[in-house]
Amino acid sequence: MKCPLALVGSAFIAAALPLAAAEPTALAGVADEETTIPSGQIRDYQRGSGDVLFVRHQTDRWYRLQLTEGCLGTLRSFDALVFQGSNPGGRIDRFTRVIQPAYNVSCQIESIRRSAAPPQIDSRSPVTLD
Predict the structure, then answer these.
(1) Can you give the residue ranges of every domain in the chain?
(2) Per-residue pLDDT reduced to its tens digit, 16-44
């Protein structure tokens, strides 16, 4: 009788581990909550470290996008970005793909969080590029 309870307890703990890993990491200058970007134009974008991209919406709000790990690889600069999604209203969400047409690279967005301007824009920004 003790074995089944131990197995159930182990299964419960194992099932809870992925949920704990999914919690966003606290980052200075970046909101803890996931969000979406309203429809409209992306006015600016800045590359962070690894697969992080900072984008500025036409309302001058900045967002930190975490893209699929390894997707941006060694790309150093972007001529243009295309945001392609299935949302009919044009909202950017986690189902939107970020495409860099010149290099034929397409990345899935894993996380979108509101952010202060990145340090390339504001040298006093608390945001790190990670």
Answers:
(1) 26-115
(2) 444 444 566 788 899 999 999 998 889 99
